[in-house]
Amino acid sequence: MTYFAKAPMPREQMVLFPTRLEDAIPDDHPVRILSELLDAVDWSEWNGEYHGSRGQPPIPPKVLAGILLYGLRQRVRSSRVLEYLARHNVDFIWLAEGHQPDHSTLCEFRTKFQKHLRGLFKQVVRLAQVAGLIRLVEVGFDGTRVRANSSRHETWTAAKIEKRLADLEVEFARRLEEMKHTDEIEQPLWPADADAERLPPELATLAKRQAQLKVALEQVQRMDQARRSEGIDPQSKPAQIPATDPDSRILPNKEGGYAANYTPLAAADGHKGFLVDVDVINSTDEQSQTAATVDRIEEVLGEKPEALLADGLHARHRPSGVA
Fold first, then answer.
1. Cα(2)–Cα(311) distance, rounded to whole angstroms?
2. In the prediction, which pLDDT does 5 show?
3. CA distance 29 to 76
4. Cα(210)–Cα(207) distance, rounded to whole angstroms?
5. Cα–Cα distance between 280 and 266 in angstroms, integer?
6. C-alpha span between 282 and 245 (Å, rounded)
7. What are 260's strand-pairing partners?
8. How far apart are the C-alpha atoms of 66 and 92, rounded to whole Å?
9. CA distance 241 to 9
10. Pairwise CA distance, residues 302 & 294, whole Å
11. What pLDDT sits at residue 91?
12. 100-122: buried (b, 16+ CB within 10 Å) or exposed (e) per residue?
């Protein structure tokens, strides 16, 4: 059938003049801007974290950091998706210069260099400002809601924690009595240099759980006290913290209902869309972060934005000198 257009380059066709990877990326593509900024960064502190003589030569930190940063720009947070993109997307392949890190490498790199990545964000933002890519004429500021790794129904309250601690005390005492009886029987069989100060694994686990619950109890009690000061009765509406992600809070979802959530915040420069500040809080009180956000922008870039675009609730918290 000849109605449809023929393939410009059939898969089996040989190419007389091979195409360079460089030719696949337009001159004004955003990935080129990021690459130029990364080339200007001082990587000596990063390089010092590598041994330099053991194993195979590692992928340069500039490449791995670039993949993570460019992934964030493309709204990709999954290491597995980044692994796929570094093997199949031309812009990621170009940025990685053909390196194909797997998801484990990307995840380990992000975990190991958390402090360095925060510093890199500041360096890139400063370089973008020097290059004229950030003007701070108008900065947009907003937040959203992101689900935590915890169930809405698996939460701790002060009452639940106190009951669980009491149960653990009983269990701990019972285990100690059982082990004391066992020790009396087995003591002659123990080596003379046995460590008598080390808790057996079962008791060590119980002790760790007790310590974690005590920390959680103190946290919930402080939250209950804050609720009292706001006129909320903790008896009828007690404070809750998620059991498996205690740093998160039970907050309203954007789509309705409640769940364990965080509230990421971002401020973006209006000229080219560069992020000039990011943060994560565990409350819905985004407006209370307005002044702190402007202060951090000034700390990194040396000046305040001329105007801040945000929801109406932020108006009462607007810093002086910012429209």
1. 56
2. 74
3. 18
4. 5
5. 9
6. 11
7. 250
8. 9
9. 58
10. 11
11. 95
12. ebeeebbbebbeebeebbeebbe
Tokens of 55: 């194993």
Quote the pTM value. Answer: 0.67
> Which residue matches tokens 């080339």?
39
268: closest CA among 143, 145, 139? Answer: 139
CA dist 192 → 17, 95, 273, 321 (Å): 78, 61, 68, 74
The answer to whether 240 touches 250, Cβ cutoff 8 Å, is yes
Parallel, antiparallel or unpaired: strands 138-143 and 307-309? parallel
Task: State which amino acid sits at residue 157.
Answer: T
Domains of the chain: which residue ranges?
Answer: 21-133, 158-239, 250-317
One-letter amino acid for residue 295 of the chain: D
Are 274 and 125 in contact by the 8 Å Cβ rule? The answer is yes
Report residues of the chain scoring pLDDT below 70: 1, 17-18, 52-53, 181-204
Is 209 exposed, middle or buried, given 0-12, 13-18 or 19+ CB atoms closer than 10 A?
middle
Phi, psi values for residue 111, rounded to 5° = -70, -45
Residue 88 contacts residue 82 (beta carbons within 8 Å): no
pLDDT at residue 196, as a whole number? 47
